[in-house]
Amino acid sequence: MASTCDPRKLRDIALITNPTAGKGRGQRARGLALARLRDAGIRVRDLVGRDADESLDQAHAAAADGVDAVVVAGGDGMVHLALQALAGTGVPLGIVPAGTGNDTARLLDLPRKDPLAALERILAGRTRSIDLARSGATYYATVLCAGFDAACAERANRMTWPKGQMRYNLATVAELRTFRPLPYVLDLDGKSLRTDAMLVAVGNGPSFGGGLRIAEGAQIDDGLLDVVVIKPISKLELVRTYPKLFKGTHTEHPQYERHRVRTVTIAAPGVVTYADGERFGPLPLTVECAPGALTVLG
Predict the structure, then answer these.
(1) How far is Cα 39 from Cα 136, in angstroms, rounded to an integer?
(2) Strand, helix or coil at 35?
(3) Which of 42, 171, 191, 250 is most exposed, with the fewest beta carbons within 10 Å of its own?
């Protein structure tokens, strides 16, 4: 369950940056963070990995070395990386949003377009614990996509133009031409469900893809996952329904189902899942809620 703690004194912070995030916003956020944190009298370990593996090693090493917090300047990909090092350690995570989607920052109600405002939230030192979702030893914070949404993400990641939300929108239009409903087998806290569906999504939080609220109503402090099933609908109806995802009003559609569980196992042929916008792994897989697994600043 989420909890708010007394503000803690921050003396030693590891700052891990993806300088390429958000068309260079990551690099600009890094510069602002270094200046503001050092101005506050904090020792800052300025860490920029050559690749994701090195950044993950840096995050693990910083946590093991007893830093007061790990702060990431970047998007959901950098946050996802930090989760793998910090989950279950009690070392707080601070986020200076600098990506395209920033769904984790949205989940935590952090300033997404003002790095200095995000830094002030970090400097206040207030912490809380939130749930994560876990499959094996890998964690995610927002939504796991396992169907049409994952196919769109896969296509968008192969595209080099345009950037941002428009790339995902174009990938969605392109995927519509060939996508067909898939046969799923779900185990929902021991209850079996077989159904054809356009997609299955497992939300720890409500949104993915820069604010698409597929798992509307999901909470980060209830010890539960929200499993959303969109049963077969026509391509025209999918196009009509898509804009409703930004407001979460798709929940009124008759082909929408929501199940709240502690653990879900998903199987379907040929599906590669995405979580926190990152390639997560092929089905079948089991996802469980990890209550209070992460401490966050802000």
Answers:
(1) 41
(2) helix
(3) 191
